[in-house]
């Protein structure tokens, strides 16, 4: 397994399956979208107790333990996809990985539409 923060040439570098987070460029690779990740806006409970729930992102000025706020201003979820060369999909290990990830996605493993882990919904 490699964890990289850059796009790689999957076929050229001999990668069986890549997990990409974000919008995908057009390519000849096969794509399976398996879920999405949420970005969220948070504020510390101490800040909320002292200043109330902010009405606009510019109102946030403190950090600490976080509570989700400003849900109406949060960006949309970012897709999570598997990319692979069609020729590699016939390899048993690759096929098993792709199938397992699809099944996990069907089971809601990535919380499609759910709040991000470790954040609880704040008022507002």
Please provide a written account of the structure.
- The protein has two domains: 1-36 and 76-116, D-Maltodextrin-Binding Protein, domain 2; 40-74, no CATH class.
- It is built from two helices and five strands, in the order βββαββα.
- The protein has helices at 45-51, 92-106, and strands at 18-21, 30-37, 42-43, 67-68, 78-84.
- The strands form two sheets. It has a three-stranded antiparallel β-sheet with strand order 1-5-2, with helices on one face. A two-stranded antiparallel ribbon has the order 3-4.
- The longest helix has 15 residues, at 92-106.
- It is elongated and about 60 Å long.
- Residues 113-121 have low confidence and may be disordered.
CATH architecture of the largest domain: 3-Layer(aba) Sandwich
Rounded to an integer in angstroms, the radius of gyration calculated over CA atoms is: 19 Å
Arithmetic mean pLDDT: 77
SSE string, helices as H and strands as E: EEEHEEH
CATH topology of the largest domain: D-Maltodextrin-Binding Protein, domain 2
What is the first-to-last residue Cα distance? 41 Å
Major β-sheet profile: 3 strands, antiparallel
How does the helix and strand content classify structurally? alpha+beta
The order of strands across the largest sheet is 1-5-2
Question: How many distinct helices?
Answer: 2
Number of domains: 2
- Name of the CATH class of the largest domain: Alpha Beta
Count the beta strands. 5
Any idea what the CATH superfamily of the largest domain is called?
Periplasmic binding protein-like II
Shape descriptor: elongated
Low-confidence stretches: 113-121
């Amino acid at each position: 397994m490699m964890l990289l923060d850059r796009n790689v040439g999957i076929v050229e570098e001999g990668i069986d399956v890549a997990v990409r987070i974000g919008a995908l460029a057009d390519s000849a690779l096969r794509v399976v979208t398996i879920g999405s990740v949420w970005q969220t806006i948070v504020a510390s409970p101490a800040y909320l107790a002292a200043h109330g729930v902010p009405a606009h992102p510019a109102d946030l000025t403190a950090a600490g333990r976080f509570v989700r706020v400003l849900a109406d201003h949060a960006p949309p979820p970012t897709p999570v996809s598997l990319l692979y060369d069609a020729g590699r999909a016939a390899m048993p290990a690759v096929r098993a990985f792709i199938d397992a990830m699809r099944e996990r996605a069907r089971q809601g493993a990535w919380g499609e539409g759910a709040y991000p882990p470790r954040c609880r919904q704040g008022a507002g």
